[in-house]
Amino acid sequence: MKEYKMRRGEHLEDRIPDMKAKIEDFFGEISGTEEHNGHELYVVEDPDNPVFERIIAGTAEYSGKKDKLAVHFEERPAEDVIAEGNADAAADAVSKKNEFLLDATGRDAKARRDSMKRTVEDDAETPDGVS
Q: How many helical (H) and strand (E) elements, i.e. helices and strands, does the chain have?
């Protein structure tokens, strides 16, 4: 499960007022919810794109901090998708993921990677046992 921050000064609920509808627009019908790390997230068991096996997405709410987008994409092996003749679906899946994340966070793929890198570097600089 990955969690994504919004751009400075922006909030997830402002960017996506109806998370359920946004997930359904991008990935297919929501079949239920699951709890992950104390957050109730939406589950798409049968995504529209054959590359995805299952998608879990929603808002990770934190008291005293900005909410984050929590997402987990379970994907089928590329070989299987291509063997079925769905090579175009693979490119579409990448586009859908990136568009969804851009809409939600206001950050493109490069900005999200840079942000994740900074987070990992910051964590590495913190001595063990210090929060």
A: 5, 5
